[in-house]
Amino acid sequence: MNFGYEDRRASFSGDLGSVCRIVLDDAAASDLLPERDESGDKTAFGNALVIAGSAGCTGAPFFSATACQRCGAGLVRLAVPSEIHAIEAVKLNEVMVIPVDIDRHADIDERSIAEYLKLASRSDAVLAGPGISVTQNNRLLIRRLIRSSRIPLVLDADALNCLSGDPQALLDAQCDIVITPHEREFTRLFSFDGVPGDDELLGFAARYGAVVVYKSAETRIASPSGVLRVNSGAANSGMAKGGSGDVLAGMVLAFLTQGMEAEEAAALAVRLHSVAGRIARERLTQYVMLPSDVIGCFPEAFKVIMER
Cα angle at 211 between 234 and 281, to 5 degrees? Predict the structure, then answer.
């Protein structure tokens, strides 16, 4: 759903009595699952772009891109700094890995920013942030991406850290945005201490016109339209490991790429992610399971949702 740019930020009055609360369970996720056109080619299922990675952060782009493709996107392109291109290209066979040049200080420059924006303009949805690091030029990239994009954006991890203390930048968007902060990222972005209540979370979503996926043991998805979805009963300490958020962000991207509305794409991704995590925990225990194991459990998780 495109919230109408200007008026999308005023669609929720802050009166919790009018809020639509939805318990996000397997049945609710089943209703959201997009249909597949059995005669469609890859273009029918969208062109996704992941902007991720930096030296020392080579796992995040792998997790996001793999999760995106595993969730049905037709074509997934991964744009990474040239210094880690070979690493990602070796690990990813089905994903198109695109190198973007960096300067002698191992940072992107104006030409790099232009290349990222060009790739984004040729996509159906974009995820930016996993493992990109926080630099002056990455801050500029994220702001220019927000201002220029006409397709849905997912902002995760370092994309949110690049906006720390300046959520007003989100108001420049002319597209639907999903942000996926955990508590510390939320605090840094909005300069907010503590855990936000439901009314506060919905208030932030409405004020900045973004779908807010507040990640926790009970993840909540707040929409500017005043809908709050709660992923109850899904606590799983085995998912409290680096890389889990990168997997979830890639899943949100996949469903946006396939044409789902932003709040529903986020909700479906959150539930499927938790179901796959539950299966991984049952197989491996919460101590042993890894984000890659969660991706490995996607087939069974999809079957659980599809059979509801």
Answer: 20
Q: Is 81 helix (H, G, I), strand (E, B) or coil?
A: strand
Q: Which amino acid is at 95?
A: V
Indicate if the pLDDT at residue 18 is higher than 90: no
Q: How far apart are the first and last CA of the chain?
A: 25
Q: Which of 230, 59, 115 is nearest to 222 (CA)?
A: 230
Contact present, 233 and 21 (Cβ < 8 Å): no
Cα-based angle 177, 34, 26 (whole degrees, multiple of 5): 90
Contact 220, 229 (CB under 8 A): yes
What pLDDT digit, counting tens, does each position of 148-162 carry? 999 999 999 999 999
* Predicted TM-score (pTM) of this structure: 0.94
Q: 230 Cβ partners below 8 Å, 6+ apart?
A: 21, 22, 23, 24, 218, 219, 220, 221
Structure token pair of residue 31: 């209703």
Q: Which of 242, 227, 306, 224 is nearest to 272 (CA)?
A: 306
Domain boundaries 7-33+40-306, CATH class: alpha beta
Helix (H) or strand (E) holding 252: helix 244-257
